Amino acid sequence: MNQKYSNVLALELALYEIHDTGYDPIKKIIDFWEKYDLIGIQNTINLLLKNHTDTNYMNEIYVVSHKQVFSADLFRLLVAYFMAHTNSIEIDKIDISDAETTQVSRQELSITKRIHNLFVRIAE
Predict the structure, then answer these.
(1) Is 36 exposed, middle or buried, given 0-12, 13-18 or 19+ CB atoms closer than 10 A?
(2) pTM (2 decimals)?
(3) Are 10 and 72 in contact (CB under 8 A)?
(4) Which residues make Cβ contacts (< 8 Å) with residue 3, sequence separation at least 6?
C-alpha cells in the first residue's frame, strides 16, 4: 500500500472502531495514558511538527512507524474523550495512578513546576 494512504487508513480505522461491539471509551483513555507519558507525548509532537530536510531520517522505519502509531493513538484518545463527553460517561473515575507513565509524568510536572517558580522569582 502507498505510504501516504496507509497514514490516512490508520486514522480512519481509529474513528470507525467506535462502532465496534463492546467499544469502551474509558478503556481507550486508560490505554493511552498507560502507554504514553508527557515527555514522550511532547517529543513525538515535536517530531511530527519538525520540518525534516534529511530524507534519510524521514525514511527511517522506526521514525515513520512511531509517528503513525502515535498519531493513531492520539486520535483514538481524542475520539474516546469525545464519545465519553457526548454520552455523558463520567471520566473522573479513571484511575491511572499506578501506571509507570503516570509516575514519569508526575516527575516531569514536578520539574516544570520548579522551573516555573524559578522564572517567577526572577521576574519579580
Answers:
(1) buried
(2) 0.69
(3) yes
(4) 64
